[in-house]
Design goal:
This protein is of the alpha+beta class. The chain has six helices and seven strands. A five-stranded mixed beta sheet has the order 2-4-5-7-6. The protein has a two-stranded antiparallel sheet with strand order 1-3. Helix 1 packs antiparallel against helix 2. The chain is elongated. It starts with a helix and ends with a strand. The relative contact order is 0.11.
């Protein structure tokens, strides 16, 4: 049965909540590391105030770690901002590679938790028309299932093509077959986005075509 509009809205809200929760966990992790390093720096300063000689390199090392986390936090917030504003956009010209890069960065925590590495091939922009938010939702759902299929300590590779007016995202490296019910659900999502799916069990590839 086709999804109703309220159900689509509910799916979109759930997706937004899932991504927001992942982002909040990442930011919390960044703040925890900064807090730990700042506490260590305070300990060294306290020791210095008590007359103990402190190696400046130690302080420099801690400051460097804090700066790395600040840059990481800044990157997470920029991605969060781009994702949040994608809801505002109507159907427009999109770059499927850019959207995929953003989705992969937002799913890093999920992939890391399952020990799956995702690499994205270099390519020229692969553009088409569509709703960026629902396209991201489709890419994310496909990637989540592909991450499960890839299995622990494996790698997914993502390639792009744009031939004869058709754009495609190819996810390579699936180890296990995608369950029929999950594939059926993905195909319904793809239709709602104006896309189609191609799954090749023997080649271990899932293709999203726009």
């Amino acid at each position: 049965m086709e999804s109703t509009t309220p159900q689509k809205d509910r799916d979109g809200l759930c997706f937004f909540g899932q991504i927001s929760a992942a982002i909040s966990h990442d930011l919390k992790n960044v703040l925890a590391i900064i807090n730990e390093d700042a506490g260590l720096m305070q300990d060294y300063l306290l020791m210095a105030n008590q007359g103990m000689e402190i190696n400046p390199d130690k302080l420099g090392e801690i400051a460097g770690k804090i700066l790395i986390q600040i840059k990481r936090g800044d990157s997470i917030i920029k991605n969060m901002n781009r994702f949040a504003h994608s809801v505002d956009l109507p159907e427009c010209e999109v770059d499927y590679r850019e959207l995929t890069l953003l989705v992969v960065s937002l799913l890093t925590r999920i992939a890391s938790r399952k020990s799956v590495t995702i690499s994205i091939a270099e390519s020229d922009p692969v553009k088409g028309k569509g709703d960026p938010f629902v396209i991201q939702m489709l890419i994310a759902k496909c990637l989540e299932i592909c991450i499960d299929s890839a299995g622990k300590d494996n790698e997914l590779n993502i390639e792009f093509s744009n031939e004869a007016g058709n754009s495609a995202i190819k996810i390579i490296g699936l180890s296990n077959p995608v369950p029929a019910d999950q594939l059926s659900g993905l195909e319904k999502n793809a239709v709602n986005v104006g896309a189609s799916l191609g799954f090749s069990p023997q080649d271990k590839i899932l293709i999203i075509k726009f």
